[in-house]
Write a structure and sequence with these properties.
The protein is α+β, with helices and mostly antiparallel strands. The chain has a single domain, classed as 3-Layer(aba) Sandwich (Cytidine Deaminase, domain 2), CATH 3.40.140. Helix content is 26%, strand content 19%. The structure holds tetrahydrodeoxyuridine. Tetrahydrodeoxyuridine (THU) binds next to helix 2.
Amino acid sequence: MATEHGGVDEGVRDGLVAAARDAAGASYSPYSRFRVGAALLCGDGTIVKGTNVENRSYGLTICAERSAVATAVTAGRVAFLAVAIYAPDSDYPLSPCGACRQVISEFMPPDAPVICVDRAGRCATYSLAELLPHDGLYELKDRPLD
Ligand code: THU
C-alpha cells in the first residue's frame, strides 16, 4: 500500500484520486462555483472523503481537505498516509491552502504524498514537507500540554 519513500502504489493512488473525484461531485459551492474533493488514505487502508462546504457568510467556508480530516477523525482515524485533491474547475493541479496544509500535518508525516489533480487529469505530487517547510511546531506534535 505505502511504499518506502512515502509514496503509494499506483492502484491505491488511482483509487484515492477516484474517491476525491467522487467527493467533488458532492461539493456545496454555489458562491465560488469551484468544486473540490479530497480523499485521505488512512493508516488502516480505508479512504475517507471530504468536499468543500460554502456558506453565504463567505468566511465560514470549509475546504474539502479539512472536511475530510474532520470526517476521518470523527470515525476514529487519526493517521493518514496520503491525500488526493481533485479540482474539476481548476486549470492546474490545486494544492491545499495554507490552513489545510497545517491541519493535514497534524495527522500525516512530512514525506507523505499530496496528490493534486486538475480538470484535465493533470497531476502534481508534492510531499507535505514541500508544501509546509520549516514547520516550527513539529516538535509539539502529539505532545499536547498536560
Ligand atoms: N477550496 C478547497 O476546498 N480546497 C483548497 O485547497 C482551496 C480552496 C475551496 C474553498 C472554496 O469553497 C473554493 O474552493 C474557492 O476557494
